[in-house]
Structures are given as C-alpha cells and as structure tokens.
Known about the structure:
57% helix; globular; mainly alpha
Amino acid sequence: MTTAEQQAEVQRFADTLVKQQVDWATFYREVLGPRGIVRRMYPTGEAQAAFEQTDTYQQIQQTLTVLRRQGPLPPTEEEPTRVITVRLPKSLHEALRAEAHQYQTSMNQLCISKLLQYIDNQMVPTDL
Length: 128
C-alpha cells in the first residue's frame, strides 16, 4: 500500500467515525490510540513521525479539537478516567494557569490539548 493510500484509508476511517457521531475519546482511541488505525498503518516510530507531518494528520487533529468542544465525557467501562500527577516548577504552573485563562479554558482542558499534540523525539529528555 502506498503512502497516499495509507493516508486515504486513515482519513476514510476517521470520517466514518465522525459520521457515527462518536465522542472525542472514542475518536482518539480508534484513530490515534495505541491500537488505533494510525498505529496499525504506521507501526514504527519513524513512520508515525512522518505521518504526523501530513495534512491528513492535521485534519485529524482539527477533528479531534471540534469533537472535544462537545464537553467533558462521563467515564465509561470502556473508557474510564485516569488521573496523573505531574510535578512541575511553580513558574511553569503559573504559566499554564495564565495560558488557560487566556484561552478561557480550564488547566485540565489546556493540558489535555497539549498532550494530544505531536512532540518531536528530540524535545523529550530521557530518564538517565
């Protein structure tokens, strides 16, 4: 399958989910999640990184943003809510709070938005 065919397949799958009016967590799980179509079509980190540079990926991110505007989801058996604790310096916490205020959103929503974005390998320090 060519790269263009892979991208078209991912887009068709995403469009089908939108037509089914799924919530954003389902869309994320089925498209970008660990067992989602993107991971199946692009199984290596290198292939995923290349896909994340495409217009198809940008469209998926935009769709995800639109779906997230529908509001928070109640936890379900299939998609329970998990909580993480992140330790960060006070200055970064204050910057996030100010950014959330600027966007007129909660820090939780802002952090989820940031977590859903592509991040380059070189931007993540390793635990040594």
